[in-house]
Amino acid sequence: MSKYTKQFKLGVVKRYLNKSTSFNAIGQHYCINGSIVRRWVKRYEHYGAEGLGKKFSHYNLEFRLSVLQHMWDQQLSYAETALVFDIRSPGCLGVWERSYHSGGIDALTPRTRGRPKNMSAPPTPKAPHAKEDESRSHEELLAEVAYLRMENAYLKKFKSLSSATSTDNTAQQAQVVQELRQQYPIAGLLKLAGLARSTFYYQQKALLAADKYADLKGRIRSIYARHKGRYGYRRITATIQKMGTLVNHKTVQRLMTSLGLKSLVRIKKYRSYKGDVGCAAPNILQRQFEAQEPNQKWVTDVTEFNVAREKLYLSPVLDLYNGEIIAYETSRRPVFEMVSNMLKKALVKLKPGEKPVLHSDQGWQYRMPAYQRLLGKNQVTQSMSRKGNCLDNAAMESFFAVLKSEYFYLDKFKSIDELQKGLAKYIHYYNYDRIKMKLKGLSPVQYRTQPLVT
């Protein structure tokens, strides 16, 4: 999927052509790089609006050679050559040129995309015979029988071992060879298993070696059990070091992972901020959490729930007029589609002439160009909290606190599906039945419809 639509590119180009300004200024206005604006303008000047749309092309060998030859003859850059031949990705010209210089025409020939339909099976060792049965000697037939018996014994032993253990394949093969070497020649077993002699003896040495971390693992288990799972690898490392044993925290972390030990407290919370992605909007709301009418001021955010080692994310929109949740969306991953679908549901409820302010934090979802374009299209003013200041969005944080204290922490959930169904019921209860003293003892929906009733 293209990051920018054809209509968006066309709008950027026309803005540049209509205003006497630089590429960088236009790019800064749309939160894109100035070089991208320059490329779009050049394509529009050469090919018109069609040059800004998608193009799916498969370039054959003759076309690639003609492009490279023209570029060399005219001493053009990759960008200039791509513009002449209407190639949307100038970087592929560099790939073609390097392939041609390194491997000639064969390297430049297009390869079939994807995985081949018929995958060739790996060659299996065959019994040592090259003649017809009638022409072979008695010794050759006995050798073939011995080989087949060895192969049968190896496959049976390997199958039973692989189903009973979870070690790696090489270790399993070496163990099978070790168990059968008293009955069959080791050279034939190694050839059948596809193992080098050095690999086989290395695996034997590794099996005989004692676990050098056995004592350390015992200490880790003891400390973890003594503190009832409250300690993570950092505190366990510090405790072991106080005992006089010098150990690296990465070693403790790796051993705890292999033992299946993990701290049971302070689970990492969801953080939506991922750096300076896109453009941040100013803090227009300024902690003014009172609204005089519906759909005047909205707030939104994303919160995380953890059930049975699975996560569920909730993205609601709250109206500051009455604290009503006017739209929400849930997802098992914090993807942009969750926020986008939530916003579309909320925009449907706007009446003609209503232009609310939508406040959020500086999460990456709210800095996406697609999100900001959707707000601008519907004349919604975007407002953002200051970086690292949750109090700027206190109204939304207050709703999350109420939701978790009244619903999530009071119940026990067996699955994410059960939590998801319960969230829908609670939000309906919160909007229609749960009264607020701040709203004169009415629920959010009752408070919003009260003027209509009276």
From TrEMBL:
- Domain named Integrase catalytic: residues: 290-452
Output this protein's name. Answer: IS3 family transposase
Known InterPro entries for this protein? Homeodomain-like_sf, HTH-like_dom, InsJ-like_HTH, Integrase_cat-core, RNaseH-like_sf, RNaseH_sf, Transpos_IS3, Transposase_IS3/IS150/IS904
**Could you cite one Gene Ontology molecular function of this protein?**
nucleic acid binding
Q: Where is this region: Disordered?
A: 107-137
A single GO BP term for this record reads: DNA integration
Q: Which domain of life is it from?
A: Bacteria
